[in-house]
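The step that takes the researchers longest sounds almost clerical: writing a folded protein down as plain text. The outcome of that step, for a single protein, is printed below.
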Amino acid sequence: YSMLLSLIFLIVLVAAVVGFVFRHEIKTNFESNLNLALRDYNVTADRHSEAVDTIQRTLHCCGVQNYSDWEKTEYFTQRGIPLSCCKSQDDCSEEDLKDLSKAKLKVFVDGCFFLVTSTMESKMGVVAGISFGIACFQLIGIILACCLSQYITNNQYEMV
């Protein structure tokens, strides 16, 4: 049991170190994937488009760096900026969303990449604290399992 807990502890420790060391590559990868999701954004309900809409609605952002990123997409030429970028769903018309100068007043102008990464970084303290707490319980479990094993091998328990 202590070997199993030790193995899990080491896997979590390695994952934490790798995540910390490669955090910049993770950001770069997220940015490129967000750009791809914008490029491939369409009206059909695929999971990438739904994810983009959810991020934009939840974080009140639009595009990767800013709302003008949508201008480079095929979706923009057909329908304009998506409704998920609108500050108010009632106030956005399709004509406004096709014109960037009008859309600037009606959509969120901040990009999602900065907001997502800053939200993740602000929550890292909570994640690190919870991970540290779990690691402490694992270490206590490893120590207690080793102590129990030692007591059993020393015949401290009466055989039944």
